[in-house]
Amino acid sequence: MERRASIRAGPGHARHCEVLELVAQETTNKEIASVLHISEATVKYHVSQILERLHLQSRYQLAQYAQERGLAPPLDDE
Q: 29-36 and 13-24 helices cross at what angle (nearest 10)?
């Protein structure tokens, strides 16, 4: 059984949770930056930190992670 780290642990977890929820809603980095009033570079930093902490490889995997934990609605697999 594979274990993943918790996004809710460690410094910056509140911002990471906000970014995670927005990524899971298929929001672009530019849109996330606008919503959270931060730069796109900062969004990219947070996304990379979240991916690393959770041992994930892509935004899609990140969205699945969030959905499995009830943080976002299911993705449309069209």
A: 130
Spatial contact of 20 and 54, defined as CB atoms under 8 Å apart: no
CATH number of 32's domain: 1.10.10.10
Is residue 78 included in any domain, yes or no?
no
pLDDT at 54 over 90: yes
Total domains in the chain come to 1
- Cα separation, 45 vs 31, in Å, equals 15
pLDDT at 10 over 60: no
Range of the domain at 59: 13-68
pTM for the model stands at 0.77
